[in-house]
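Acyl-CoA N-acyltransferases superfamily protein: structure tokens wanted.
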Amino acid sequence: MENRCEVGPSGNLSLYTDHLGDPICRVAELVVVSGSDDRERREIVGAIRGCIKTVTCGTKLSRNANNIQKVKSLPVYTKLAYILGLRVSSSHRRMGIGLKLVGEMEKWFGENGAEYSYMATESDNHASVKLFTQKCGYSKFRTPSILVHPVFAHRLRLDDRFTIIKLCQSDAEALYRRRFSSTEFFPRDIDAVLNNTLNLGTFLAVPRGESWPGSDEFLASPPESWAVLSVWNCHDVYKLEVRGASRVRKALFKTTRILDRAFPWLHLPSVPEVFRPFGFHFLFGLGGEGPNAVRMIRALCASAHNLAKDSGCGVVATEVANHEPLRLGIPHWESLSCAEDLWCIKRLGEDYSDGSVGDWTKSPPGTSIFVDPREF
Ligand SMILES: CC(C)(COP(=O)(O)OP(=O)(O)OC[C@H]1O[C@@H](n2cnc3c(N)ncnc32)[C@H](O)[C@@H]1OP(=O)(O)O)[C@@H](O)C(=O)NCCC(=O)NCCS
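Answer:
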């Protein structure tokens, strides 16, 4: 059915996702079948997936008991549900199946204590936007950008002003919990994310020659500038494929790859093979501080590019808030990226667990968001 559903911006190109039977295709999965009583002749005509997790939805201030001048910002968590993979076969659209699937999924969310539900779609996917905002009570919430960079046939040079250190999982967890837990959408089970076999590691950039002193010491007195990101291996979970390109375009792109492979020292930017199934790495948990943080993020992205090249990926992708200050350091091609991914949200329950934030759906966006790689 996924095969029959075109997903993508209106136009002649569409993006096809092959889930390779992904067993982590999330917690709940609903399908609608049509056809006769004969099981053999039945076909799936609609599907939806959903998951629930606990994330940061805001912050509250807490005063230090010994020093009332010292105010700390603590995360406020909520139970958030996420809808993904809604598909209705083109032969069965506009019959109310999409609406029914969302309703059934929300019932499951409610039974499992979710306080909010959200979904992401391209802002020009009118069918989906209309379905959620006009029929299901969702409101437009955040508009992050998906930034995509091709993986070239040559390696990218690393900036030798910085040292890149791979952190062990416990250090990465300490850094993320202490520096990022107030970021919107930060998953409380960050340890599960970092321990997942699909996580390829957390990388820290520091000024050249500096070493990792341990998380306590680093957090107590970090260098003037530092940056961090983690790499998630989507390559082994599902493949993407761009469909609908003309032969001329395919031939042109192929030529760039042939040249890049033949003369890697020229560092020619080449277009990867996206018209056949290709995998990618997703960069998450991007952050940093100091005057060189943007340059350090660029260095980390170059290093991630080289890792993706070694793994045979077609592209490297990430998703950041619209006003993310570090996005200047994230190399990407506009033609492959999505400037405005639209996230819509709905409040499911009125009994809000922590009154200090109020209705999250009405809160203004922060400068950063934490995008969970399990949902990408
Ligand atoms: C989006 C999608 C799931 C809708 O499924 P569907 O079963 O056709 O939707 P429904 O029949 O339940 O429609 C409910 C409402 O959604 C809106 N809607 C659905 N399709 C629409 C379209 N093509 N244009 C405008 N509005 C549309 C309408 O408000 C509709 O109510 P109405 O028929 O009374 O006007 C389906 O078009 C699809 O699978 N698209 C490709 C995959 C995709 O984009 N998925 C969404 C990713 S989040």
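DSSP finds seven helices and 14 strands in the chain. The radius of gyration is 22 Å.

Cheers.
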